[in-house]
């Protein structure tokens, strides 16, 4: 049978800043248990881990199925000076994590809204809610730090790439400037060679004309 939670309609609100605590009956392993419960917006996984650690402070915890925890003869002075039978269940329901805990005595009397120990039991549950709320805040802040750190790493890598690109650009510029300089020297040499070629052509033309003249003169001296 799916989780059966019979609420007593009584709503007990603790001190300012505390969560809302309800009394009711929950079916745990086919047996109805009277107790208290509250809901939190913390992931069920983390609530179960912290709740098991918290309960272990007061006795040997028997972990059952589906988030059920039991302690026989629990010693919880802040709730009662007498040994307690603690039965608890943590489960996910309608977008939130529910924490149900039943405090029972040997005479099958349970702490409910009308019991004299109810305020202590309510405070016990609220103290745990405060604890997991603080733990959740640490996780949130840690995740935020991790996200910022990851962004910082990305920016650092991007910055390193930019610095390298600038250095590569400078080297390329220097290489191009050197090539331009070398090309300028080569151009000057080519221009000089062109001018020299023009002079050489003029000179050879003069030599050609002179030689042609000498040839004509030599021919005129031949016997006729």
Quick structural overview:
This protein has helices at residues 44-55, 118-220, and strands at 5-13, 20-28, 31-40, 62-63, 68-74, 84-93, 96-104.
Helix and strand topology:
Blueprint: E1 5-13, E2 20-28, E3 31-40, H1 44-55, E4 62-63, E5 68-74, E6 84-93, E7 96-104, H2 118-220
Antiparallel strand pairs: 1-2, 2-3, 3-7, 4-5, 5-6, 6-7
Written account of the structure:
The chain has about 220 residues and is an alpha+beta fold. The chain has a domain at about 5-140. Helix content is about 50%, strand content about 25%. The chain has 2 helices and 7 strands, in the order βββαββββα. Strands 1-2-3-7-6-5-4 form a 7-stranded antiparallel sheet. A hairpin with a 4-residue loop joins strand 4 (about 60-65) and strand 5. The protein starts with a strand and ends with a helix. The model is unreliable at about 1-15 (pLDDT under 50).
Total of helices:
2
Structural class: alpha+beta
Beta percentage is: 25-35%
User: Which residue ranges are poorly predicted, with pLDDT under 50 across at least 5 consecutive positions?
Assistant: 1-17
CA-based shape = rod-shaped
Strand order of the largest sheet: 1-2-3-7-6-5-4
The radius of gyration is 48 Å
Distance between the termini: 146 Å
Q: What fraction, in percent, of the residue positions are helical?
A: 40-55%
Report on the biggest sheet: 7 strands, antiparallel
SSE order: EEEHEEEEH
Q: How many DSSP E strands?
A: 7
Q: Mean pLDDT, rounded to whole units?
A: 88
């Amino acid at each position: 049978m799916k989780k059966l939670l019979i609420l007593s309609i009584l709503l007990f609100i603790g001190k300012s800043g505390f969560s809302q605590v309800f009394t009711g009956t929950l079916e745990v392993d086919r047996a109805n248990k009277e107790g208290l419960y509250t809901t939190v917006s913390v992931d069920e996984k983390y609530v179960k881990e912290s709740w098991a650690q918290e309960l272990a402070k007061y006795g040997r915890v028997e972990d059952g199925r589906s988030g059920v925890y039991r302690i026989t003869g629990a010693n919880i002075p802040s709730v009662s000076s007498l040994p307690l039978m603690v039965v608890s269940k943590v489960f996910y329901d309608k977008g939130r994590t529910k924490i149900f805990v039943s405090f029972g005595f040997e005479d099958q009397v349970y702490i409910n809204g009308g019991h004299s120990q109810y305020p202590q039991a309510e405070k016990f549950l609220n103290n745990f809610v405060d604890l997991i709320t603080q733990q959740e805040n640490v996780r949130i802040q840690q995740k935020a730090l991790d996200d910022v750190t990851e962004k910082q790493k990305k920016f650092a890598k991007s910055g390193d790439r930019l610095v390298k690109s600038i250095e590569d650009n400078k080297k390329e510029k220097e290489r191009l400037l050197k090539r331009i300089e070398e090309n300028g020297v080569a151009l000057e040499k080519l221009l000089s060679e062109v001018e020299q070629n023009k002079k050489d052509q003029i000179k050879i033309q003069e030599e050609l004309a002179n030689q042609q003249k000498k040839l004509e003169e030599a021919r005129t001296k031949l016997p006729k």
